[in-house]
């Protein structure tokens, strides 16, 4: 009897700690979106495109300026006195080794779409009028792949990771939400309607970002399976993959941080094994090195002009179609990934977190694009596989990627390795996202305390609903991009608010440390 009463009391206590509004309102919004995608796919896509076009053209400076500002801010924070702050106690040691920490950060920050875009993004750029106007289209296509996946996108993650890590491990805040990171500026308004609105926007943006990611790359996995099971449609296989992925990342999530870190390290080893094989056995190793080195140099040389190009006369819409989309794409992921990076960075200084993030995160991203992208580009340039002709004929990037990989020795094994790596990327990204989202559901949560398994399971399922709707509606790439651009618009303002709030709070903390040191010095002098 006592056991039953204790169980009921524990259950009631857990319910009292949950914020059903944070979970329920986004759930209703997503279900509503799912209904419209299912019921009115054409009208839904048309509406998304109209809103996306307006934001991309009228607010180009907002998106691009924000990206450049956050990148420069990350460097300022890293090399200023703020960079010396330890995320935890002043003498605390890192919770994870550099490889484990880097693996969790990299795989949480980038889902399987990195492999999809690494293999084919240059194809999307090379026929763009703007890229062709720059000169060597193939080289500039590679330059822009590095730019769109490099320092500015990771800057979004790392500035917020520093802010969230400071909030969690230094200030020991119990509300693990976006609004809590704004407390030093918003003060008591954090607990009111304004703070609640910030959190609801953050959760909705999170769901939109995960939907975009899932819907972009899963058809490639389906295309790989179709080589083995040709009788099944791409849509049915994509749905099967989404369900399997959901099962895998839910299982990992319920195993806690041990399961997440193990899956992240496994994913990293699979990822580098794939790159190693393509580099050494793809017959293009020398070209990959030379072309990649040249493209990296050109990206660094032209970085300021690329970061500020707005197409003011509306001649080509390149920044609207691509650069703005990518900044928005990363901004919506900023709701979860930086929280996770900040939480696993306990014991590291802010400087180590930012610079280490650039080394492992940007470094691994560049290696992926340079190896896989330049491999598929070499097939076109050296007339081994007519990549562009295949794309023009099929209009399917998924088919192009499969044919490019089939040019490798032991192609079936390579395709199997790619499939497993993509599955691992999805699982490692979404188990960390589901963990952060479930933390959002609590009114307060102690440092190191994990959410209830049922709450984690709820979010694991919720994250899969919108991707399924987008697959059923057969949304185009442009419409998938629109989801991110629209969701990112309000998130940009919140990112700025969090950044300035962090600077204010960190400045106050440094003064507190200085006072403690001065006080201790005076005490020691008095004793002498």
TrEMBL record:
Keyword Cell membrane among UniProt keywords: yes
Example of a GO cellular component annotation carried by this entry: plasma membrane
Recorded topology in the membrane: Multi-pass membrane protein
InterPro entries listed in its UniProt record: BCCT_transptr (IPR000060)
Major localization class: membrane
GO molecular function: transmembrane transporter activity
Subcellular location, record wording: Cell membrane
Coiled coil regions, renumbered to chain: none
Residue ranges of the TM segments: 20-40, 60-87, 99-126, 146-168, 193-217, 229-254, 266-289, 324-342, 354-375, 413-437, 458-477, 483-503
Domain of life: Bacteria
Keywords for this protein: Cell membrane, Membrane, Transmembrane, Transmembrane helix, Transport
Family the entry assigns: Belongs to the BCCT transporter (TC 2.A.15) family.
Protein name as it appears in the record: BCCT family transporter
Organism: Oribacterium asaccharolyticum ACB7
């Amino acid at each position: 009897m006592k056991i039953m009463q204790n169980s009921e009391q524990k259950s009631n206590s857990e319910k009292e700690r949950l914020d059903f509004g944070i979970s329920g309102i986004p759930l209703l919004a997503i279900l509503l979106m799912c209904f419209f995608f299912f019921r009115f796919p054409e009208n839904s896509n048309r509406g998304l495109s109209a809103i996306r076009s307006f934001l991309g053209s009228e607010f180009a400076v907002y998106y691009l300026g924000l990206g450049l500002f956050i990148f420069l801010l990350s460097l300022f924070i890293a090399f200023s006195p703020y960079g010396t702050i330890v995320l935890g106690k002043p003498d605390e040691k890192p919770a994870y080794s550099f490889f484990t920490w880097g693996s969790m950060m990299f795989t949480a920050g980038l889902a399987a779409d990195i492999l999809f875009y690494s293999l084919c993004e240059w194809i999307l750029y090379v026929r763009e009028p703007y890229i062709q106007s720059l000169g060597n289209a193939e080289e500039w296509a590679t330059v822009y792949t590095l730019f769109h996946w490099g320092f500015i996108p990771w800057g979004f993650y790392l500035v917020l990771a520093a802010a969230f890590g400071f909030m969690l491990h230094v200030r020991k805040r119990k509300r693990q939400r976006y609004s809590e990171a704004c407390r030093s500026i918003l003060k008591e308004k954090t607990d009111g309607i304004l703070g609640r609105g910030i959190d609801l926007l953050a959760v909705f943006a999170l769901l939109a970002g995960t939907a975009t990611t899932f819907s972009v790359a899963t058809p490639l996995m389906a295309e790989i399976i179709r080589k083995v099971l040709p009788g099944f449609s791409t849509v049915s296989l994509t749905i099967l993959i989404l369900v399997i992925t959901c099962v895998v990342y839910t299982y990992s999530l319920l195993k806690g941080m041990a399961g997440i870190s193990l899956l992240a390290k496994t994913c990293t080893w699979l990822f580098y094994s794939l790159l190693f094989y393509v580099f050494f056995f793809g017959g293009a190793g020398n070209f990959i090195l030379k072309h990649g080195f040249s493209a990296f140099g050109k990206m660094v040389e032209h970085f300021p002009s690329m970061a500020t190009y707005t197409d003011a006369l509306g001649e080509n819409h390149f920044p609207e179609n691509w650069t703005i989309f990518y900044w928005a794409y990363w901004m919506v992921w900023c709701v979860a990934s930086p929280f996770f990076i900040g939480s696993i960075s306990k014991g590291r200084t802010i400087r180590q977190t930012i610079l280490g993030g650039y080394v492992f995160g940007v470094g691994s991203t560049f290696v992926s694009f340079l190896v896989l992208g330049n491999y598929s580009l070499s097939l076109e340039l050296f007339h081994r596989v007519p990549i562009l002709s295949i794309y023009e004929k099929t209009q399917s990037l998924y088919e192009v990627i499969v044919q490019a990989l089939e040019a490798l020795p032991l192609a079936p094994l390579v395709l199997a390795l790619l499939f497993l790596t993509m599955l691992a990327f999805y699982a490692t990204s979404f188990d960390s996202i589901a963990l952060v989202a479930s933390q959002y559901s609590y009114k307060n949560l102690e440092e190191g305390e994990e959410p209830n398994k049922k709450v984690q399971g709820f979010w694991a399922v919720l994250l899969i609903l919108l991707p399924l709707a987008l697959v059923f509606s057969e949304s185009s790439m442009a419409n998938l991009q629109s989801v991110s651009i629209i969701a990112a618009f309000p998130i940009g303002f919140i990112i700025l608010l969090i950044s300035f709030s962090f600077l204010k709070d960190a400045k106050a903390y440094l003064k507190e440390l200085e006072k403690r040191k001065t006080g201790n010095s005076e005490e020691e002098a008095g004793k002498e």
